[in-house]
Each structure stands twice: as structure tokens, then as C-alpha cells.
């Protein structure tokens, strides 16, 4: 190696035949995600970059990348479409970024089950799966562009969670193939409960190369907006719909005013000062839905059939974390929290306690067999101290906070170390090269 040859030149040469990206503009784009939703993360992560990006197309090429990274002891960070919000795929220590988007083959689809590569985009998958009457059980608001592997690695809930709960719930992920970063990389297959070793681990302990996922029956999903005079009436309606076992639904999303004012494309359907529910319900259940709307004094302002909804922008793109995206496009000082309220009593308490400081956005999901309200509430960021006070008040009053202002795996939602994920990392990544700095358990172990 000459004095002008860098280790990255050497690595690129050793990976000849695999697509490699070194252009600074592309490298910057592929080093980042939507971390800027958090002013805390923006300050911490804005300058983080990888040294080069590789785009393997096959598992064999992934093995080659893994072997090369271990040989040179350089960090490796896996990414899908980069639609996460917590810096999950941002390399803290530089190194190689492994972009999985070329691994986009659907291996097979059969009733209730499918096998895919990690780079398969969710909307593209559903288009094919619906040909036989099935679809993904759940998906984030970034559904059009997000990859299945990226969602498993960094996501947790989304549309469909009102029926199927969280990704971590038993049965929502059937099997994985992962490549290790040992001296001699190997492929390990995980099935059943073993998938939790890698599920929502931010790519810290295995490169996913194949997934087996359960599917849901594909209903004709009508899209509906209901307006309400009072926020708590809207929230109570959301709980009642979520509890209505006879109404098949995919999404129950409730927005306190002024959040609806941020949805520019929907303004003609969102009366000034009203609170709203954005819903996805089976067309076959519109009659009982309308009766429920009347019971709670709501007004249906928008009602698209499944066919009509398929041609335009889905209302999914105004819910979950896209709500925050739309709000920030109007006021960049807005940020958010992620909260498990568990009960409407807690929702009402927080609604009155914080008043105008905090605008509540609810997404209903199944948790422990019950439909509960979860929140992605919005507020204007002032100081980190005030942010922590808001979090502390929520936690002291019985809500669970999945903190979106940290890139540390354990400090976000779980708040505890997962011994199974740590043990698996020790096995498959003995040098700690995979997405270093994201797993607190590993950092504590190596610093002790």
C-alpha cells in the first residue's frame, strides 16, 4: 500500500464487483435518516458520516463485505431506506455503510406467509401479495419507501397495529437469516422466539439477509376522516372503534387541533378548530362505523373507497410519524414524544395539564390483548431541561415514554438491557464492529 492509498481504497479494491459509493454528496445522504425530528439528535448526529457505502445484491456478497470489515477491523452499519427517526442507521464511528436496497427479491408468497430479502419495499410487496388476497400485517407511515428489513431492524408499530400489536409480539416475525461478523463470517437462521435476538436491534448484532413474515387478509380499506368539536370526544370515539371487534380496521388515528391545520393537502376536509379522526376501515363495515360516528356526534368529512384511495395520497401519510413530518414543515421548532398512555384517563389528564404547550396525537394499538391509546404528541422545543421535565411528568403519572431523542437502543423504548440480544452480539460480533455506540449493554461491558 503506497503512502497515498487509504484503507478505504484497499477495502474498495477487495470488494471489486460489488457496487461501491464514495461520492461525498451520496455518502452524506446515505449516512443519515430523519434524526432531525429531534433537536437533541440533530446536534449530536448532523456531522456523522460513513467512509464508503456498499450495495451488495446477494447474501454471498454480504458475506464478502463482512469478511473484509472483520479483516480490517472497521465498523459496519446496515441501512434500508433510511426512513427511521432516531439515528438507528447513522454511523457514529464512520466505516462501511451496507445498503440493503439491492437485495429486493421476494422469494415466495403463499396464503398467510411470505419470504423476502431485506431490501424489499413494503408497498411494492403488498402490490404483489394482494394478488392472492394478502398483505403485510403492519407498516409505518413511510410505507411507500420503507424496506421490510429496515422496519424489522428499527421499527416497532404502525398501521395494522390496532389488530396485530407490535412487531415484538410473538408470531409477528417468523424467521430470519443473518450474517455474522466473525473472523469467518457465517449464516445463522433464527426461528420462532429466537428472532427476538435481532428484532428491533438497530443492526447491532447481525446483518439480516432474509426474512419470513406472516401476512394479514387484505380487505378493501376505505379511508375516512371524522371531525369532532371536543378532543376527548374524539379520543373516546377512537377507543370505542378500537374496541369494536365487529368492525374490521387497520388504523385509528386521533388528532387534537391545531394538528389538523398542518395537513395542507387535506384542508378542505378539516374544519377550522375541529379535532379529527383519520381512519382505515373495511368498506364492508362502513354502516356500523357510521352508526358509531353518530353515537359520538362526529361528522364524516372525507370518505374514499379502497379503489379511490389507491389512486391518490393515502391518509396513512398524515399519521404516525408523518404527522410530525407535516407539522415540522410548517413549524421546524416542533418536535415530539412517543407515549403509551394505556388509558383515556391518562390522556385526559395530560391534555388538561399541559394545555396549549402540547398537542396530542393518538394512535390506537393492541397491547397485551387490549386496544390502548398511544401518543406521538407535538410541542415546541425550548430547552433540553424542559423536554426532560415533560418526559419525567409523563413517567411519574403512569405513562410509558419511548424516548425519540436518543440513539441508544435501550434508552429509547425498553429502558432495560436485553440480555438475549447482548449474548447474541457477543457470539456474532466479537469485535463490536456492528453499528458501534448504539447498544448500551455492549458499551458498558467493554468499558468495565
Report the mean per-residue pLDDT as an integer: 96
The CATH architecture of the largest domain: 3-Layer(aba) Sandwich
**For the CA atoms, what is the radius of gyration?**
22 Å
Number of domains: 3
Biggest beta-sheet profile: 8 strands, antiparallel
SS summary, helix count: 16
What structural class should be given to the helix and strand makeup?
Answer: alpha+beta
CATH class bucket of the largest domain: Alpha Beta
Q: N- to C-terminal separation? A: 36 Å
CATH superfamily of the largest domain, by name, is FAD-linked oxidase, cap domain/gating helix
* Uncertain regions spanning at least 5 consecutive residues: none
Major β-sheet strand ordering: 14-11-13-12-18-19-16-21
Percent range of helical residues: 25-40%
Instruction: Using the coordinates shown, work out and report the CATH topology of the largest domain.
Output: Vanillyl-alcohol Oxidase, Chain A, domain 3
- Note the beta-strand portion: 15-25%
Global shape:
globular
Record field, number of beta strands: 21
Tell me what you see in this structure.
The protein is of the alpha+beta class and 448 residues long. It has three domains: 7-99, Uridine Diphospho-n-acetylenolpyruvylglucosamine Reductase, domain 2, CATH 3.30.43; 106-217 and 419-447, Uridine Diphospho-n-acetylenolpyruvylglucosamine Reductase, domain 3; 221-401, 3-Layer(aba) Sandwich (Vanillyl-alcohol Oxidase, Chain A, domain 3). It is 31% helix and 23% strand. The strands form four sheets. It has an eight-stranded antiparallel sheet. Strands 5, 6, 7, 8, 9 and 10 form a six-stranded antiparallel sheet that branches. Strands 1-2-4-3 form a four-stranded mixed sheet, covered by helices on one side. The longest helix is centred in the N-terminal third of the chain and has 14 residues, at 59-72. The radius of gyration is 22 Å and the shape is globular.
Amino acid at each position: 500500500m503506497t503512502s497515498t492509498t487509504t484503507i478505504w481504497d484497499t477495502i474498495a479494491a477487495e470488494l471489486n464487483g460489488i457496487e461501491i459509493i464514495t461520492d461525498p454528496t451520496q455518502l452524506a445522504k446515505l449516512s443519515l435518516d430523519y434524526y432531525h425530528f429531534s433537536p437533541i439528535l440533530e446536534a449530536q448526529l448532523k456531522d456523522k458520516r460513513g467512509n464508503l457505502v456498499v450495495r451488495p445484491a446477494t447474501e454471498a456478497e454480504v458475506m464478502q463485505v463482512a469478511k473484509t470489515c472483520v479483516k480490517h477491523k472497521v465498523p459496519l452499519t446496515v441501512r434500508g431506506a433510511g426512513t427511521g427517526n432516531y439515528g438507528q442507521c447513522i454511523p457514529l464511528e464512520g466505516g462501511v455503510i451496507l445498503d440493503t436496497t439491492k437485495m429486493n427479491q421476494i422469494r415466495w408468497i403463499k396464503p398467510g406467509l411470505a419470504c423476502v430479502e431485506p431490501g424489499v419495499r413494503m408497498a411494492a410487496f403488498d402490490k404483489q401479495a394482494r394478488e392472492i388476497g394478502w398483505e403485510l400485517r403492519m407498516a409505518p407511515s413511510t410505507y411507500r419507501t420503507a424496506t421490510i428489513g429496515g422496519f424489522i431492524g428499527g421499527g416497532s408499530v404502525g398501521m395494522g397495529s390496532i389488530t396485530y400489536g407490535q412487531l415484538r409480539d410473538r408470531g409477528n416475525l417468523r424467521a430470519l437469516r443473518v450474517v455474522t461478523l466473525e473472523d469467518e463470517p457465517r449464516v445463522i437462521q433464527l426461528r420462532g422466539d429466537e428472532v427476538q435476538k435481532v428484532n428491533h436491534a438497530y443492526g447491532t448484532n447481525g446483518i439480516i439477509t432474509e426474512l419470513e413474515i406472516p401476512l394479514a387478509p387484505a380487505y378493501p380499506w376505505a379511508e375516512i376522516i371524522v371531525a369532532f368539536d371536543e378532543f376527548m370526544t374524539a379520543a373516546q370515539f377512537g377507543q370505542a372503534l378500537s374496541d369494536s371487534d365487529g368492525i374490521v380496521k387497520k388504523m385509528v388515528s386521533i388528532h387534537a387541533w391545531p394538528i389538523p391545520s398542518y395537513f395542507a393537502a387535506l384542508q378542505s376536509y378539516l374544519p377550522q378548530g375541529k379535532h379529527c379522526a383519520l381512519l382505515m376501515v373495511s368498506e364492508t363495515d362502513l354502516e356500523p362505523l357510521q352508526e358509531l360516528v353518530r353515537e359520538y356526534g362526529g361528522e364524516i368529512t372525507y370518505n374514499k373507497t379502497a379503489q379511490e384511495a389507491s389512486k391518490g395520497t393515502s391518509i396513512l401519510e398524515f399519521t404516525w410519524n408523518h404527522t410530525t413530518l407535516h407539522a415540522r414543515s410548517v413549524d421546524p421548532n416542533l418536535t415530539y414524544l412517543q407515549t403509551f398512555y394505556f388509558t383515556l384517563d391518562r390522556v385526559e389528564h395530560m391534555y388538561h395539564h399541559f394545555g396549549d404547550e402540547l398537542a396530542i396525537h393518538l394512535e390506537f394499538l393492541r397491547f397485551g390483548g387490549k386496544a390502548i391509546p398511544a401518543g406521538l404528541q407535538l410541542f415546541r422545543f425550548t430547552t433540553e431541561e424542559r423536554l426532560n421535565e415533560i418526559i419525567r411528568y409523563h413517567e411519574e403519572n403512569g405513562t410509558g415514554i419511548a424516548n425519540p431523542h436518543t440513539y441508544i437502543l435501550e434508552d429509547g423504548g425498553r429502558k432495560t438491557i436485553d440480555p438475549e440480544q447482548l449474548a447474541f452480539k457477543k457470539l456474532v460480533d466479537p469485535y463490536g464492529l456492528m453499528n458501534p455506540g448504539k447498544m448500551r449493554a455492549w458499551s458498558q461491558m467493554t468499558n468495565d
